[in-house]
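User: Quick sanity check before I run a bigger batch. Here is a single chain. Can you write out its predicted 3D structure?
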Amino acid sequence: MRTLTVIPQPKEQRKRTKDTRPNMTGAGKGNNSTGKTPSPVSLQRHTHQKFAGRIGQHIRRAFTPLIDAKAASILLGVPYTWLLAQARAGKIPHHRLGHYVRFDPDDLAHWLRETRSEPSTRQTRR
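Assistant: Done. Predicted structure follows.
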């Protein structure tokens, strides 16, 4: 059986990789010192970074993110197991995403307002 032994090379003998940083010594502003045009990959990254904030802001305004049972249980002040049982029974609004159960905080707030019980106005005799 053969074994492979790796012997580290001294630093002087290691291959140097090409420096990909732009040359900022005396080059004109906005000019690439190599004279090459930017690669499509770098353009894609720039475009993605340019529009990522705008798209993210638009999505954040479009809807409220869904939360899991543990986060929803903290909002409601109930055990998350009870919350999952109520969702399974169809008594509380929820979303099924495959085997995941998620809750919309706005739906939960609306559900709470609907299920609120008012105090009785009937007076008791003593």
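The CA atoms of residues 6 and 61 lie 56 Å apart.

User: Great, the batch can go ahead then.
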